[in-house]
Amino acid sequence: MRAVMNRAWEQETVEKARGKLRNLASQVEDEYPGAARSILEGLDEALTLIGLCVRPELARTLRFTNAVENLQGTLKRVTRNVKRWRGGMMALCWAVAALLEAQKKFRRVKGYAGMPQLIAALQSTVTSKSMDRRERIA
């Protein structure tokens, strides 16, 4: 399964990758119905990076949630001794303190050179979606 999923993520177009993942889901449907449903359920989210034409090195880094989980663990560790939260500003200050602590352990993102293209693709996607929404309202 892992090999097929990796081949799907290496496809140039979303349609090709979607076809490979749907084919995989149909193959495992009988023995592993939960796995097949999971593949189909997360299909659009899994193919977002392909649709945005993110460079392969950067896509490999962003495909996993390790960076977010690491940050959440640092936030939990830094704030574990706070017993009384006094408003949003206090929470914000502790969150910033945790981010500064986590920053010390951050490593360089592999494929970081592709970040400007990713940002441009995200901005164009957001712009086109907001224009579509305005057209529907009108």
Strand percentage lies at: under 5%
Number of domains: 2
Q: How many distinct beta strands? A: 0
| Net shape | extended
Give the low-pLDDT segments: none
Structural class: mainly alpha
Biggest beta sheet attributes = none
The overall average pLDDT, rounded, is 84
H/E topology pattern: HHHHHHHHH
Helicity level, as a percent range? Answer: over 70%
* End-to-end CA span: 46 Å
Quaternary form: single chain
Please tally the helical runs, counting DSSP H or I stretches of 4 or more residues. 9
Radius of gyration: 20 Å
Structural description of this entry:
The protein has 138 residues and is mainly α. The chain has 2 domains: 51 residues, no CATH class; 84 residues, no CATH class. The chain is built from 9 helices and no strands. Helix 1 runs antiparallel to helix 2, helix 2 packs antiparallel against helix 3 and helix 7 packs across helix 8. The radius of gyration is 20 Å and the shape is extended. It starts with a helix and ends with a helix. The mean pLDDT is 84.
